[in-house]
Amino acid sequence: MTPAQFGFFRRYLRGIAESFFEDGVISSNLCDDLQSFPNTPQGILCASELFSRRVVNVPEYRLRMRLRGLREIDGSRLDHIQLMFTGKRRQRRRVCFVGYRFVPEVRRTLVWNLRQILEPYNVQLDWSGRDIRSVQIFDDIVRRIRRADFCIFDNRATSGRPNVYIEAGIAYAVRTPFVLFEFARQRSAVIPSDLSHCFAIRYTSYRRLFQEFYAKLPVFLDENFRKER
Fold first, then answer.
1. Is the pTM of this model over 0.70?
2. Of 94, 104, 122, 127, which one is least surrounded by beta carbons within 10 A?
3. CATH architecture of 94-228
């Protein structure tokens, strides 16, 4: 384990613990324990094992950490740590419709990252990837969005092509919960006023985007599917 890797481990645990506590996912005591954990001998050993074995258990917190390799916008690799609290009931399988500009540079990064983030939550991805202007394809997209448990829309590389916003409007109309990723480095990257109240994450890098999305995901799922328990 390099000093840079340990620095990432320490910063990540502090940040994710704070986010989980603010959203009511963990208690204040567990938040304090996780934030101070990297400063303990056990925490240092845990970090070393994580970067060598990619998965490590922390029994006293009923916690499993797994190191995942995500992809940045330019295709470079970035580390992500998943925290899985053991002993919880496995969530039922859900379907997430993903709306995005169907070009290779977006698909290779966005879909890969979403699969890594959502897999522990037993979520299957669905998408169309075709031009919405066809009536038959439009009807198919409406069916897919209506059938999905929730949707994710990313407006990266969509300047001048409003398909993603149309799909988000469909989700809003049929009352399918959704998250909107707004890429902040492109022209016209402004959320339409009718959707401005929806759950949106503005980003300039996938590192920041998926850290925030991962931190907010438990609350998003709980708020939208609490009645199913």
1. yes
2. 104
3. 3-Layer(aba) Sandwich (3.40)
